[in-house]
Design brief:
This protein is mainly β and about 120 residues long. The chain has no helices and 11 strands.
């Protein structure tokens, strides 16, 4: 599975940005798609995920501000980020997990896209 992200950039606090991620390869076997982020000096953390059944999971820090969406037919996942805060500044990574028939999970990552929120 290959993941290619687009979007991101520089925005003022309170603004909005949208990220998109397109999966290719064995994309039809993806169970979970989502977004993680990593700020300088910090560990990578979950932002939002969505299962193939469209069940969502959000980090408490982004609930009510970010919205994840997914198109299973197109193998894409998007993240709409509203009311951005300086602490949202990070490199955002698209993530996909494939669960094989024998139960093992395989994780795939995009190259990352920078989001900078200025105060």
């Amino acid at each position: 599975v290959q993941l290619v992200e687009s979007g991101g950039g520089l925005v003022q606090a309170g603004g909005s940005l949208s990220l998109s991620c397109a999966a290719s390869g064995s994309a039809s076997r993806i169970n979970v798609m989502g977004w993680y982020r990593q700020a300088p000096g910090k560990q990578r953390e979950l932002v939002a995920t969505m299962t193939s059944a469209l069940v969502t999971n959000y980090s408490d820090s982004v609930k009510g501000r970010f919205t994840i969406s997914r198109d299973n037919a197109k193998n894409t996942v998007s993240l709409l980020m509203n009311l951005l805060k300086p602490e949202d500044t990070a490199v955002y990574y698209c993530h996909a997990m494939v669960v094989a028939t024998w139960g093992q999970g395989y994780n795939y990552w995009g190259q990352g896209t920078q989001v900078i929120v200025s105060s």
